[in-house]
């Protein structure tokens, strides 16, 4: 009897049924994990937002402004999470797309350097975020100013969250600017806005990506002309890779001298350029024997060149993250610090001091946002706009550093986000132009070579037009979208406040 039961269980038809059932369970487990992963991320993000509110409550104790600051800390934490999810992709995306870094290692490096930049070089004092965009005096009272900053913070965070969801890297600075402008107009009318400043910001929509794209394309042209297309690629690389690394080191040193040393000593643009020049020469001299030793025994092919550019690319991506943390953490904590100062002292017209606990919320929020939600935008910037290798990705990073320095020196308003993404587009469009040029040259040398069909020409486009149009559209509507959203939120906050008073 027992043998019959065993034989029946081992029947092929029964085994097939068992396999199907196990397959369904396996599929169910995979689907459950796929669905639960984003839910887990949102749960951790929510816990961090609650944690930020608790920190604010503990720091302020039982003062009359505790509730407002707790709400502001939660909004600031939400904004910091979104900066990590969206903005940091511009620094790490090219390195991941070029396979110089794995996604996990890129996230770890970015989190460390973003936090270090925010905490070490983030600046103890920032100008009031409203100053230059709206006149703080036009807010009338500190309560009106606080409502405007709360609306601006929440609106800009919601807009960056939406942009991340649709896969568009946008400028968090422009989001905050739009939020402040919208709340200012709702509170004090169109006359409160500095339209000259807004015109400069609008100009940066064009200046930033064009500069980033042109500089990145220029560096790629140089690498192709003087290294890749040379008969002896390795000999050419031994000459020019140290020079390019020196330029990169000098550019970052100039930028970080201004940002990182501003707490200790005031450095003018000329001094920062001299510091950058000294570091560039030192890096060039150090890299000559390093590249020579690294290139020994390498084959004369492009694959060997990718190895030589790998480490400089990783270093440049790390430095970009440090610079981003030093500069853009203010987007999250600037309005929060302004609310803390206005609610505790009543002063909302002077410069804002950023408390350490506020800066920590910004740094941790950027890191958490990157860990939880950053991979989507990192893949988009690194893989889905155009195909990147270490040389092309290095050109993007180098373009970002050089363009920011040149623009700051000339007083041009630029966005680091737009520069980096513009650099990716510049590299892609240059590759298209270069491929077309070489094809025309081949046709001239080989008479009778047939023309490509229009469909084949479209297939060979090296930049995905759909991403290009989506990103440009998101850039253009960022300020007005954040402004409209902020004005609506400000009206709701004011309505709640007046309702509470009348009730």
Automatic annotation (TrEMBL):
It is found in: Membrane. Keywords: Membrane, Phosphate transport, Transmembrane, Transmembrane helix, Transport. One of its GO terms (biological process) is phosphate ion transmembrane transport. One of its GO terms (cellular component) is membrane. Pfam families: PHO4. It is a multi-pass membrane protein. It comes from the Bacteria. Signal peptide: none annotated. Its main location: membrane. The chain crosses the membrane at residues 39-60, 66-84, 96-122, 142-164, 176-196, 202-223, 235-258, 270-292, 304-323, 354-373, 393-410, 416-433, 468-493. GO terms for molecular function: phosphate transmembrane transporter activity. Belongs to the inorganic phosphate transporter (PiT) (TC 2.A.20) family. This is Phosphate transporter. It comes from Marinibacterium profundimaris.
């Amino acid at each position: 009897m027992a043998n019959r039961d065993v034989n029946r269980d081992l029947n092929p038809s029964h085994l097939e049924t068992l396999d199907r059932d196990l397959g369904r369970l396996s599929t169910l487990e995979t689907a459950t994990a796929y669905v639960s992963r984003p839910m887990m991320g949102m749960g951790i993000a929510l816990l961090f937002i609650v944690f930020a509110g608790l920190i604010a409550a503990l720091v302020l104790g039982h003062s009359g402004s505790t509730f407002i600051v707790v709400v502001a800390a939660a909004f600031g934490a939400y904004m910091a999470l979104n900066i990590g999810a969206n903005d940091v992709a511009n620094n790490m995306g090219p390195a991941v797309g070029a396979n110089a870094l794995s996604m996990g290692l890129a996230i770890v490096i970015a989190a460390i350097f973003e936090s270090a930049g925010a905490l070490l070089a983030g600046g103890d004092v920032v100008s009031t975020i409203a100053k230059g965009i709206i006149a703080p005096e036009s807010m009338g009272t500190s309560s009106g100013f606080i409502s405007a900053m709360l609306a601006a913070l929440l609106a800009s965070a919601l807009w960056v969250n939406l942009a991340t969801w649709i896969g568009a890297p946008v400028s968090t600075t422009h989001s905050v600017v739009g939020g402040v402008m919208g709340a200012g107009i709702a509170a004090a009318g169109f006359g409160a806005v500095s339209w000259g400043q807004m015109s400069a910001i609008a100009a940066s929509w064009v200046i930033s990506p064009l500069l980033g794209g042109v500089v990145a394309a220029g560096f790629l042209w140089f690498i192709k002309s003087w290294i890749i297309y040379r008969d002896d690629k390795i000999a050419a690389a031994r000459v020019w890779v140290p020079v390019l690394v020196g330029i990169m080191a000098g550019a970052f040193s100039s930028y970080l001298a201004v940002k990182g040393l501003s707490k200790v000593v005031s450095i003018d643009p000329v001094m920062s350029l001299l510091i950058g020049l000294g570091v560039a020469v030192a890096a060039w001299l150090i890299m000559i024997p390093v590249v020579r030793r690294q290139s020994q025994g390498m084959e004369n092919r492009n694959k060997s060149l990718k190895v030589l550019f790998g480490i400089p690319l990783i270093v440049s991506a790390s430095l970009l993250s440090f610079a981003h943390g030093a500069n853009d953490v203010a987007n999250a904590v600037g309005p929060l610090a302004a609310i803390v100062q206005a609610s505790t002292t009543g002063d909302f017209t002077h410069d804002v001091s950023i408390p350490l606990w506020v800066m920590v919320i910004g740094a941790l929020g950027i890191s958490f946002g990157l860990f939880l939600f950053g991979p989507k935008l990192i893949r988009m910037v690194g893989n889905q706009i155009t195909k990147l290798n270490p040389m092309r990705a290095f050109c993007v990073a180098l373009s970002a550093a050089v363009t920011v320095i040149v623009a700051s020196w000339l007083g041009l308003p630029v966005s680091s986000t737009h520069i980096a993404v513009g650099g990716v587009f510049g590299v892609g469009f240059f590759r298209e132009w270069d491929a077309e040029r070489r094809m025309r040259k081949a046709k001239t040398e080989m008479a009778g070579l047939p023309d490509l069909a229009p469909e084949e020409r479209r297939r060979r486009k090296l930049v995905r037009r759909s991403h290009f149009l989506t990103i440009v559209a998101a850039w253009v509507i960022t300020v007005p979208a954040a402004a409209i959203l902020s004005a609506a939120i400000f009206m709701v906050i004011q309505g709640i406040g007046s309702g509470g008073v009348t009730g």
